[in-house]
């Protein structure tokens, strides 16, 4: 059976924490900041943790070697 490859798009979007959780960036921060409130911009700084059910799918389907 061939080796499973990691999806290139997923390795750019997600990182695993030391405890095995999946980190992601917040959506809606690429452009159009003038339309967003300062509170929205502030709250989308940094990273967030993916919900557990979605994280299981990401690890199984997109990051098999992580």
Helix-strand blueprint:
Elements: H1 8-13, E1 15-16, E2 22-25, H2 38-43, E3 47-49, H3 52-61
Antiparallel strand pairs: 1-2, 2-3
Keywords: Ribonucleoprotein, Ribosomal protein
GO molecular function: structural constituent of ribosome
Protein name: Large ribosomal subunit protein bL35
What tags apply to this protein structure?
single chain; 66 residues; three-stranded antiparallel sheet; 3 helices; 3 strands; 33% helix; Ribosomal_bL35; Ribosomal_bL35-like; Large ribosomal subunit protein bL35; structural constituent of ribosome; ribonucleoprotein
Structural account:
With 66 residues, this protein is an alpha+beta fold. The protein has a single domain, classed as Irregular (Factor Xa Inhibitor). Helices cover 33% and strands 14% of the residues. The chain has 3 helices and 3 strands, in the order αββαβα. The protein has a 3-stranded antiparallel sheet with strand order 1-2-3. It is elongated and about 50 Å long. The mean pLDDT is 95.
Enumerate how many helices there are, as a single number: 3
Assign a percent range to the helix content: 25-40%
N→C terminal distance: 19 Å
Instruction: Find the count of extended strands (DSSP E, 2+ residues).
Output: 3
Strand content: 5-15%
Number of domains: 1
What global shape is seen?
Answer: elongated
Largest sheet, described in full?
A: 3 strands, antiparallel
Instruction: Please state the structural category.
Output: alpha+beta
Query: Which CATH architecture?
Result: Irregular
User: Uncertain regions: pLDDT < 50 for 5+ in a row?
Assistant: none
Write down the secondary-structure element order.
Answer: HEEHEH
Please compute the radius of gyration using only Cα atoms.
15 Å
CATH third-tier fold name: Factor Xa Inhibitor
Protein name: Large ribosomal subunit protein bL35
Family: Belongs to the bacterial ribosomal protein bL35 family.
InterPro entries: Ribosomal_bL35, Ribosomal_bL35-like, Ribosomal_bL35_CS, Ribosomal_bL35_sf
Organism: Ferrovibrio terrae
């Amino acid at each position: 059976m061939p080796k499973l490859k990691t999806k290139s798009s997923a390795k750019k979007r997600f990182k695993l924490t030391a405890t095995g959780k999946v980190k992601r960036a917040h959506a809606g921060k690429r452009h159009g900041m003038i339309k967003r409130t300062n509170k929205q911009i502030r709250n989308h700084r940094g990273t967030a943790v993916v919900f557990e059910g979605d994280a299981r799918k990401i690890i199984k389907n997109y990051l098999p070697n992580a």
